[in-house]
């Protein structure tokens, strides 16, 4: 299917002085749905944008100055989580006076060097809110209990498994949709994508999809039932597959899953390099952030290309959909943060 010409951005936010490395919509109580956006840059500045005024409502640099931001995440209770490249996660609150104030920090008890994998909020089987973040050993994943605000577990590959290298991306599986009970899917430096059971701290399946790092993964519901995973990396392909239905094929040893993603589909890209993937919550679209300065839109049900969004002058580092209808525009916005220091906002293919 031929791709459509690029529309113009709905708006472009300017103000960061360094590459934008994190964007996420933020819907705290007492604010219009979809009206706030969090962003972070390579120098450690966090900004809270008010999309009604198109200006920053607050900003903060103290916790991660000169270290860089990997991810921002706003929780339903208004808590903001900011992950720095050095591995620390700052917990912020928006005060009544409109300032961002740190209230706590999550620090691994084995601090290491720089990390490259954005953290993600996941939920265990007992509904304990968990934050997954790469550990001191970059192939391991630390799980932090957000109620206790401390690390409670470590996800480690079975000793007999081949090494996978650094964890590059972690995403949550929608609750109750994986037949094996996986709560998270992670991409690794060797090109593997792995499903994790957070309740039992066990690996359930592993698929080797790339010869290069699996830089970005995302998980979304499938119209035919269950979930699918989409993964991209340093190469020129996207791979999409259904979650496995059993943890190990016949003859596989305990703790050594050899299952693969099912019904695997491949999308060939004209330009190599994917930094980020985001699936819209209605299950109709997904977007990719490319090294070629472009955002690409695809149909999630058909896995077919729809449009190329061209605005940025440098690589697009991150994309994120709004989960709420923005009251002013009446639609769901897509945010894209780029190495050119700008954030483009797009209103496309509205539900």
List key phrases describing it.
mainly beta, four-stranded antiparallel sheet, 351 residues, 0% helix
Description of the structure:
By secondary structure, this protein is mainly β. A hairpin with a 4-residue loop joins β27 (334-338) and β28 (343-346). The strands form 7 sheets. A 4-stranded antiparallel beta sheet has the order 1-28-27-26, with no helix packed on it. It has a 4-stranded antiparallel beta sheet with strand order 2-3-4-5, with no helix packed on it. The radius of gyration is 19 Å and the shape is globular. The protein has strands at residues 11-13, 20-26, 36-41, 46-50, 55-60, 69-74, 80-84, 89-94, 100-106, 120-123, 129-134, 141-145, 150-155, 167-172, 184-188, 192-197, 202-208, 216-221, 227-232, 237-242, 262-268, 274-279, 285-290, 294-299, 305-310, 316-321, 334-338, 343-346. Helices cover 0% and strands 46% of the residues. It has no helices and 28 strands.
Secondary structure layout plus pairing:
Blueprint lengths: L10 E3 L6 E7 L9 E6 L4 E5 L4 E6 L8 E6 L5 E5 L4 E6 L5 E7 L13 E4 L5 E6 L6 E5 L4 E6 L11 E6 L11 E5 L3 E6 L4 E7 L7 E6 L5 E6 L4 E6 L19 E7 L5 E6 L5 E6 L3 E6 L5 E6 L5 E6 L12 E5 L4 E4 L5
């Amino acid at each position: 299917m031929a791709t459509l010409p690029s529309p113009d951005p709905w708006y472009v936010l300017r103000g960061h002085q360094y590459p934008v490395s994190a964007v996420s919509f933020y819907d705290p109580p007492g604010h219009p749905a979809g009206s706030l956006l969090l962003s972070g840059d390579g120098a450690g500045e966090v900004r809270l944008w008010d999309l009604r005024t198109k200006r920053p409502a607050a900003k903060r640099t103290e916790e991660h100055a000169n270290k860089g931001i990997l991810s921002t995440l706003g929780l339903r209770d208004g808590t903001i989580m900011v992950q720095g490249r050095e591995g620390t996660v700052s917990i912020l609150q928006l005060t009544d006076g409109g300032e961002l104030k740190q209230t706590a920090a999550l620090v691994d008890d084995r601090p290491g060097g720089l990390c490259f994998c954005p953290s993600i909020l996941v939920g265990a089987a007992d509904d304990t809110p968990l934050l997954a973040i790469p550990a001191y050993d970059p192939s391991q994943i630390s799980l932090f209990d957000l109620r206790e605000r401390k690390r409670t577990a470590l996800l480690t590959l079975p000793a007999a498994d081949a090494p996978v290298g650094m964890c590059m991306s972690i995403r949550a599986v929608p609750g109750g949709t994986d037949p094996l009970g996986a709560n998270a899917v992670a991409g690794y430096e060797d090109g593997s994508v792995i499903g994790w059971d957070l309740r039992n701290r066990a690996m359930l399946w592993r698929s080797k999809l790339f010869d290069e790092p699996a830089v970005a993964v995302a998980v979304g519901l499938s119209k035919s039932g269950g979930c699918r995973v989409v993964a991209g990396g340093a190469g020129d392909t996207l791979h999409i597959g259904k979650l496995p239905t059993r943890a190990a094929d016949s003859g596989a040893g305990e703790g050594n899953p050899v299952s693969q993603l099912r019904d695997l589909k491949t999308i060939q890209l004209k330009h190599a390099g994917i930094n980020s993937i985001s699936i819209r919550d209605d299950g109709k679209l997904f977007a990719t952030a490319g090294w070629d300065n472009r955002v690409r839109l695809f149909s999630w049900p058909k896995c077919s290309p729809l449009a190329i969004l061209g605005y940025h002058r440098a690589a697009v580092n991150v994309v994120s959909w709004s989960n709420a209808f923005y009251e002013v525009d009446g639609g769901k916005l897509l945010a894209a943060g780029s190495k050119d220091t700008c954030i483009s906002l797009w209103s496309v293919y509205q539900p």
